[in-house]
Amino acid sequence: MSPQLKAAFNNEMQQAKDYFRAGDIDSAFVHLEQAHILGQRNTLRHTWSHWWMLRVGLRSRDFREVRGQVLRIVAALMFSRIWVPEGNTGGAHVHPLKPMPIPAVELHPKLTHWGCGKFLGLIYVTKPKLSRYSMGLR
User: Fold this and answer.
1) Nearest to 39 by CA among 12, 58, 57, 16
2) Which strand (E) or helix (H) includes residue 17?
3) CATH assignment at residue 59
4) 72 in a domain, yes or no?
5) Residue 106, SS3?
6) Residue 28, phi then psi, degrees to nearest 5
7) Three-state SS for 123?
8) Contact 13, 33 (CB under 8 A)
9) Is 90 within the bounds of a domain?
10) What distance lies between CA 76 and its chain's CA centroid?
11) pLDDT given for residue 3 in this prediction
12) Does residue 121 contact residue 85 with C-beta atoms inside 8 Å?
């Protein structure tokens, strides 16, 4: 994960935590969804975003969200490096395999600029040191 993408992810997570601690669960979840999109190709960050979504579900007593996040945590640990559906926000209210439009205009340039792209509706991340594509050597 590039330093810029990591910083964007950390910023979204910090905002989510701040809203969570202030009791604004809805705003916290919006930032968790954005963090999920930014971090979903990194196993630990992907899992971390689902962990916080689980905490939101527990605090709001939304047991559908709790059940969904428990399953998504397991899936994030197993599949994050293999594939992720483009734009999926990670909440239990959407199918975990459903590609979605990137919800925030500011997220799409971050993803494409830092070596991400899409193929068959899935986000992939190239490794700049290893990929001719990400270095502009098509």
Assistant:
1) 12
2) helix 3-22
3) 1.25.40
4) yes
5) coil
6) -60, -45
7) strand
8) no
9) yes
10) 10
11) 83
12) yes
